[in-house]
Each structure stands twice: as structure tokens, then as C-alpha cells.
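Lab notebook, bench 4. The sequencing result for the construct came back, and we need a structural model before the next group meeting so we can plan mutations. Quick request posted to the team channel:

Model the 3D structure of this chain.
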Amino acid sequence: MEISCSSSCSSSTSCFEFALEYLRCLHGTTTGCGYLIWKLKIGVRLLQSFDLYLTLWRRRNHETCLEQDEEEKDVTSSRIQDLIIRKMRDLEFASSGCSDHSRSINLTHVESELTKFLEAIKLFFKAVINDLLHCYWLRDPELVIDFIDSVAKTLAKMKRFHLGREKLMFLKSFICFAMLRGVKGQQLTDLLIHAEVMAINALHLVSIWFFHTDNVVQTEHQISRLIREKINPGDPKVLETYIHVLAAAKLSISSDTSALEKSKQTVADFMDYLVQNTAELLQPCTSTPVPIMNQMLKFVEELRFLTILLRHQEKFKELCHEMKNLVGVVACDAAVVIFSLSVNQIKEGLAKETDLALFHLLKVLKFIRAEVTDPVTLLFSPFGFPRTNELGSMDFLLENLKELENCSETDDSIAFPKDQIHTVLEDLIFLRSFLVKIADQRNRNGKLQALWSRVMEVAHRAEFVIDSIVVGDKHEYLERVARDIQLLRTEALETYDSTMHDCGAQRTTQKSFRIESKCRTPMLNEVLVGLDDEVKAIIHSLIRGSKLLDFVSIVGMAGLGKTTLANRVYNDPLILSHFYIRAWCTVSQVYSMHSLLVQLLCSISSRSPDEYLEMDESDLAPKLFKLLKRNRYLIFLDDVWEIKAWNLLERALPDDANGSRILFTSRIRLQFKPDSMAHHLRHLTDEESCKLLQKKVFGKEGFPPTLGKVGFQIAKLCRGLPLTVVLAAGILANTAEDCWEEVAKSLTSSIVLDDEYCMMTLELSYSHLSDDLKPCLLYFGAYKEDENVPVRRLLWLWISEGFVRKTEEKSLEDAANDYLRDLVDRSLVMVSEQRTMGGAKACRLHDLVHEFCVKIAKEENFLHVILTGTSNPLRICYRNARNLMIRESMLELPIARRLLSFKEDDLGFWLPELLRVLDLGELVFHGYFPMGVFLLAHLRYLALRTLGVTFIPAAIANLSRLQTFLLRGNGEDCLLPKTIWNIKTLRHLWIADSYAGFIFPVENLEVYPGLDHLDTLSLAIDPSSQSLQKILTKLPNIRRLRCKMTESREEATRIGNGFLWFDCLSQLESLTLLYFDIYGIKFPLNLKKLTFVYNKQPWSEIPTIGKLPKLEVLKLVGCSFLEWEMKEGEFPSLRVLILREWLDFRRWTASSDNFPRLEKLVVHWCTELEEVPSCLGECPTLEMIEVKRCSESLANSVKQIQQEQRDMGNEALKILIEGCVDARSSSEEEEESECGSSETEPISSEEESESSEEEEESESSSSETESISFPPKKKQKKESISSQGV
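Done. Here's the predicted structure in C-alpha cell form:
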């Protein structure tokens, strides 16, 4: 690294910037000095801020200060710069060899110079800087703002000072706002002095932290306290200063609004910080009376709306002069109210003056909003309502109206128009029966079609008007809607007088005759037909040939089966045994280096994906390089569109001349190397297409005699495209056999290109779907191309959206699962991962199917994915949209009902009040709960990512229709309020991270109703509190329960003589227990799946578990048993047995009558176990044994079982063995420490990116077996279980 400090540091600015850039480069070329470099960068930034302060002081006081003072400041500034230049020269000399191979020789010298540099800065601060902290000289708006920006830039590099930075930026916005409003004189001076004091205090706090980091915990607490005291003051004198400034701002109203138009961003920034301040005030107010809390939450949301309006160029421009002026006045009044509030006031009741001011402000804010989003314009002008499953939408509306009519909450409201709603309900029931009558005729009769559309439009309008009344809007429009509905009823009677009012609310008949599906559930790694030669050729290219890193590509058009073929190769036993490491990622057309690196690392390592997502590319690439170094690896890149994708990854993939390979699929021929091998995938022959069709429809080769001719004709029409074959099979499997000729005619209706032919086949498949299934399929359009979709979350969304109809025989969850199975059977959806109990765990769409869903969803106004623009849909999905675009689009979408976000962005937008589904994706709420969601009275699905939230506010009771409440990323147990018992609709209460759960309130349980519909729960319990059974009796229909022990434990008071009682849960099917001490357990007899994770259960519990008659899956993780001697007749129904982390497990004895139905055995990290019982090979149902990170002798015993089975003619038993060696090489040990441990490495230069969240379930793993990642024993409380998340 060549530098010249003398030439590069000619000015104070370049001196500091050069030092920071040099340190950044140094971090990239050295190892082991990351923390020192990071700390030194903070010190340099600190000096830079103080130097700027001295410079600004000289500029401000050049003419008025004493010559001696000015000279003193010049000397101090020169000493700061001299210190930087001198120490940078020393560092340059020490690190001069870091760019060549001798850098290891100088590393000690570099570390020594870095340490000396740090000490020099500390000594300088102690000697000089503290003397400058007692006088504040700037008092000029521009200078103070420059200084705040400098300090904020320093604080931005340290997350522990995030709060301080936010407060400084608020003061900056306040100063700008005051200047915009014409504030001058003493009021402005007082504000400037206060801001200057706050900035100096912030730098002082950084210096305190800089000097005292020996006791990190104590220093952190001290810094947090000082930030609250010094930078976030609640001093009455300060608040008085604020209010005086605002009063002056309000008095200086100008008739000219051009200044506001030009600087509305300034007002928007100020309003943003007002919203933040108010939200912070509300956080500790957990016991605030609901009316006061609701009033405050509405106030915050209206301010948020005003902020968006100020940032929306077109909407703000449309406002009249008086309205623009009103916006500036409202900003002043809102700030006065906020600065007058206190936590005690909010908790105990607002002062009368404040309450009146708040009431007036809310009226004005609603008036402004009505001017921007006029409901008359939205509801009574032509509007494109969704056209998917229209009768299903009508049914959902009728169900909601019936619930509303019977709801006791509305009885308290005299103004609630129950009679009008009852009339609307009766008329809509009649119109619903009329639509059923004309369903088959409307497509042939233009008049009936037009009437159908008008009925649906007025039904949607009625829904919006009534839902708006529920959230507090006026019901002046209900009368107009009711009149329109009555007119349509009259017209319907005249148009079709044979329609009877008592037709009921039956659903429309389906378009095609349905039969029980013949399809089996497909996986991504389908059995190939006719391509065995291709598989062999590709495998040969991968394991033979040059020792240098080489490329093998599979090239072909969409739908030809490239990914299916590559998956088959990737999982072939020859590949598994040849390559030490395998990794894969999906590239697609939209990708980033960061995304590719994270995918590859997650496919190799057992670490949390969140840990990698938090890291920069510059850190991820070396990690991947280190993992692959000295290992023969195979990288699978799926769906590559350009060479640029490889260029991004090239430097992260070492070439050790050991035969490593890159396998990739692409629709086009990409030449990564001149002589790289390309396999052009051929079309299927007619005979191969016929075989594939037979297997997909009937599960075996051969058609029934009556279908042979038409079956072959359909196979031939598929043109050798596997995707078209499986789509056709999906249609045939659900069509009566006498209708196959019609399917063949549909496939011959046009002559198009292959891609277009696939799309035509998709349209045919879509037309054959029942109306219930169409929205379920289109919902996949909300996800990214090639994304693996967690099934449970998807089904919960379908239920909340109202897609799943109620039946008496099945729960909504089972019905939703049937819907998914139907889509899978039709080959429209692929199962990418299966659960251990069977069924889908994750699923995805083929690229062409996804493209089709996005296209149809947009055409039918079903779903809008916001990438670069917006329309006015009811379902919105944000993906890769800029935050400003999200804010602006929200202003134009006030009637949106669903919002799915996949961005990590701040909640800087206003949430429409009528939302039913809200998932804020990767947006993290650090240490607080977003109170604004409690205004969304219609919410049925709420998914948030939180960090460190320990309780849920009582205001959650406002969400009386909530069905699913999902928390991701929360590393703490979360206390639910007493009001949770009042949300009778709850079906799923889930924290995705296995080491956290919800804590139920147990006081006065007898007075609260039970949660009879709750199906899924993650629970945290203190067994010593004797409350578990009391809680469980309130949850009679739980089917899936994850239960963990809380941190508080009282050994003296064990419940029921040390028993955990779950036998009261007669519907329980899946139970996971984590971290419990030695307890006996009473299990329900219906239990099908049981998981133990790091429990200290007594050995006597194992025989008890073995007697459970319906148990199919058993996972035992982290057990401490030395041996396991099985008894006769145990585990009669067990299909899957998983043993992990039995570090002391040495001997396992079993007999031939154990596990009579066992299908799969998984043994991971049982390092002391020498063999598995040989009699397991006699199990007639055993299909798979998987062994990882165990002893070589255990692996040999598994191989022996397989060989014995082969000798007896049984070729069905498959084994998978990975990492089973007794003597590992150093490189393998290095790989294991990286892949198997969750310990963090020495702190790098980005130490400020503090500890990341733990892993939630890896729902989208490509492995058929659910993967579980575990930390070292000393961190047992922080491991994550992939099978438990959502």
C-alpha cells in the first residue's frame, strides 16, 4: 500500500478522510486486527468532529474573539492534525509489506502501531479536549447544523448511540423548521444553544465509551443512562424553549406558501421526528386506558399520513393555498401538544387543555386527509375490484356481516347502524343466490354479465363502507350504498324472475367433473424419464477430467427439466462421495452478490441465515473462500442468465487444482471458459412423454385400455416438454376419463412456439381449477421467482384472506392443506421440502408458472407487486421498491386490504385502516412494538420481526378479529396481556425462534373465556408456577404446541410431584419440549410427533414414550443417556426416528420387533456411538438411514446393514453418510468449526454491527430431511430448531 501522508493530508478534511480510507484498506489486507482498526476509526472520527467544531468557532468569532483565544484554538487544531499525520506515517511504515506474501512478518508491528495510535488519541483527549466542553460559541444556524451533521456521522457508526443520533437529527430538523417559519431573535438563539449543548454532550459520551471499554456491560449501562439524561432531556426548561419557538413559528404565518412548497421536505422531516417522539412516549404506557391509547394512536397515524402527504409531489401540489398554510400551522400545534405530554399524563389521563387541543387537532387532520383521499371519489367512481373467485368474495362478505350483526361490541354504540346493515345483509343474500342461478349463463348473455359485474361492484362498496364505519368513520355513505343494492335487487327480479329467494348460499358448481386425484405428491427431485444417459454424462464430466476448477452447464429452454435433472445429479451417491462440500443457490434474472453469497453459505453452514444477512459482501466472500479452501467442492448455480453472475462470485471460490466443479443451468449458452462442457438438454420423445404422463397420472407406466389412444395423443401434443406433460397430467388426474377427448381438443386449438405453448397449457390448467383454488394459486405471485414458500405461513395467509371455506368435517387448516394438495396434484405447485410426518413443508412454482400467476393476478386486479409504480389494488406486495415509492403509493391506496412486504425498511408509511393482512417482512422493530397496528380493527393476520420485545401491549385487544399473530427474530420470551383472552378468533400464536415463547397471564384465569379456536402455539412456561395445566385447559383444541422452560426456575416447588401434564389436550398431534429439567410427562394418546431438545428427562420417560400408540415421529436432541436398551413392543407406529447431539451415547440395543413401521433413521453428531443395531435392517418398511458427523465404525455398521439387505435382494434401502471419520485433517476441523459452531469470530472492523438474531426455521431447505442447527453446549439456550419455525 503506497501512500504519502504529506501530500495526501494537505488540508484538515483530507487528513481525516485519508486516514479513514487508509484504515479501511488496511482492514481488507490484514487479518486479526479488525477490532483495533474499527476502534481507531471511531477515534479518528471523534477527532475530526472536534476539529470541525474549532474551525466553525473560528469562522463565527473571527472578528469578535480575543487574539489569544483564537491562537489557542489554532494550536489545538494543528495538534489534532499533526497527531493524525504523524501516526499515519508510522502506520504506513509498519504496514508497507502487507500487500505481498510477507505480510505475516509485519502483522505484529502493525498491531503495535495501531495500539500506539489509539493510546495517543486517548492521551490527547485527556490532556486537551475536556477543557473545551464548558463553553458553547457557535449560535449560528448553518454552523450548528454543520456541527450536528459531523457528530451524527460519527454516531452513525455505532449502533449503541443510535438513540443519541436520532435526537440530534431531530434538533437539526427543528432548527430548519423554525427558520422556515421565520423564527428569529432570542427564541432561535435559545434553540441553537440547546442543540449545540446536545451535540457536545454526544461527543463527550463517545469519548467516555472510547476510554472505558474494559467492563463492556457496565459501560453500556452507563452510556444508555447518560444518553437518556444528556441527549434526550425531559427538562421543563428545555420543553419551554421548544414551545416558545413553536409559538413564534405559528405567529409568523406568511400569506405566501411558496417557501413551504419549496421546503416541504424540511417540514416532513420535522413531522417524522414528532411521530417518533410520540411513539416512544407510548411504548412504556402498557396500562393506559384503551380510549386514551386509541386516541393517541390515531393521532400518531394522522401525523404519519401528513408526513407522507408532504413528500408526495403531486398530491401536495393539488392542495389549495389555504390547505397548504393549514399544514404548516398543524405542524406547530402538533409539536406543542407532543412536547406538553408526559408518560404519566398518558397513563393517568390527559390534562383538560391537552385533551381539547388533541381533539381539535384530530378533527383538523381528518379534514386534511379527507381532502386528499376522498372516499366518494374512490367508492363511487369506476373501480377495478378483483375478479378472482367473485362468489367466494361474496361469501366472505356475508360471513363478516353476520358476525358484525351478532357482535356484542357494537351494542355499546348507539350510533352504529345495525338496522341498515341487517337490510344490506338480507339484500346481498338474495343477490348471492341470484348470481348462483346465472353463473352458467352469464358468459353467453351480455346483459347478465353486466348485471353480475354491477352486483359484485356494489357488494365491494358495501364492504368498504361498513368496514370504514367499524374503524370510526361516518356512515353517511351507507344509505347510498344500501339504495344501490335495493335497486339491483329489483332489477335482478325483473331480469330473472325465476330466481327464488330461498336458494340459499350454496357455492357455484365447478366447471369440470372432479374425481379423486391419482397423482402422488411430487418433489423437485422427480424420477426422470428417458434421461439416464444425460445423468451419466453430466456426472462423468463432474468427477473426471481436469484437476483445475471447471464448469459444466445444462442448457435448454424453459420447461425442459433443467433444474430437475441438475437436482438428480446433485444428489447422486457418486457426487455425494466424490465432493467434500456441496453448495447451491438460485440466481434468476434479478440477483445480487450478497444474495448469492448468503445462499451458498447457508447451504453449507449450520449457522443462522440471519447472521449472514447482517453481514456485508466484503465479509461474506472471505468466509465462503475459507470454507471451500483445500476442499473439493461442487457449486450448483441454478437459472443463470448472464456471465456477470459468475464474475461476482469468482473471487470467493478458490481453485486448489483438486477437481472442484461449478454446475449451472441456463436457458442460453454461456461460455465461462473456452473449453467448458455444455450439455444441451433434448426434448422427450413421444414415447418418453407418454411414460412420464402415465407415471404422473397413475403412478406407474401403462394406460387403461380405454385411454391408451387418447393418452398417447395428449402426450404427443405436449411436444416433448416435461413441464407441459406434468401440467397436462395435473388436468387429467382431476378430470373424468370420459372428458379426456375434450382436453386433447383444447391442446390442439392453436399452433404456437414452445414457450407460448407452455403458457397455453397453463391457461387450460387454470381454467380447470375450481373458483376456490384460483386465488390460492395466484397468491404465489406475491413471492419472488424461484422462492421456496413456507407452507404453514402460506396456509395461514389463505385462511386469513378468506380463501378457505368452512366445513363441518375439517378444520380450516386441514381444508387449506387439501387446497394445496390439489394444486400439487395438478402439477401447478412443486413441493420443495417435505415434513417428517409427510406433507409439504415448503413449496415453489416453476418459473413459467410464476410468470403466469403474476400476469393473471395483475389482469384480474387480484394482486399488485410494487416494483416501480402503483395502481389501486386491494392486495399489495412490496418487492425491491424504494421506500419513498412505498410512502407515496400508500397515500394512493387508502382502501388496500392486504400488505405483504419483503423489504427491510423503516415503517415510514401510513397503514391503511382497512387492512386485513399485514406482514412487514424483514423490517425489524428493535426493543419496541409498533403501536400503530392496533388501529387496524379488521386485521386477521399480523406478522412482525421484533428484537428484544418482552411484552405485548394490552391494546392488542383492539384486534378482535385476529387469527394469526406471528413474531420473527424475537430473542426473548414475550408476556401476553390479560386482554389476549378476549380475542376469541385466535388460531395461531407463534414465535418463529425456538428459544422464545409467549408467556400467558395466569391471574384470575377462571373469569376469562378460553381460546377455543387456537390451533398452534409457542409457549414459554415456568413449571414451578403450577400454571401449565390451568393454561392448557383454556386451550382445548391445540394441535401443535412448542413448550419451553423460562429462565426463572424454583427447584423447591415442582408441580404434581415433578410432572408436566399434557394429557388434557385430546387434539394435540405435535409437541416440542425445550430446556426442561427432570420432569415426568403425561402425554395425550393422540400424539403423532414428539421432539425433545436439551431436556434432562429421566431415562424412565423413554419407555413411556415408546408406548404411545400413534407416535409417528420422534426427535431426541441433546440427550445425555449413555445407552439405550429397547424393550419389546415399543414404538408400534413410529415412522421416523432422529437422534442428534447425543454426545455421550455409546451403546444401543434393539430387537427385531422394535420399530415395525420405521421408514427413516437419522443419526447426527453421536460421536461416541459405535454402531446402530443390526436388526434395524430387518424392518420391512425401512427406506433410509442418514448418518452425519459420527464415528467411522458407526458408518461402517450402516454400510453393513445395507449390504446384508442387498444380499437378500432388497435394493430399496438407501444410506447417506457424511463427515464420518475418526481422524480428521486440520482443514476438515477448520470446516467443522466454521459450519457447526455458532461462536462468533474475533470482532471485525464492523464490530458495531452487533450480535445478529438467532435462526428461525429454515423452511426452504432443499434437503428432504428437516435440518436442525445447534450451538456449542455453553450456548444451549440459544440454538434454533428449523422444524419449529414459520
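Residues 1076 and 1095 are 5 Å apart (CA to CA).
Will bring this to the meeting.
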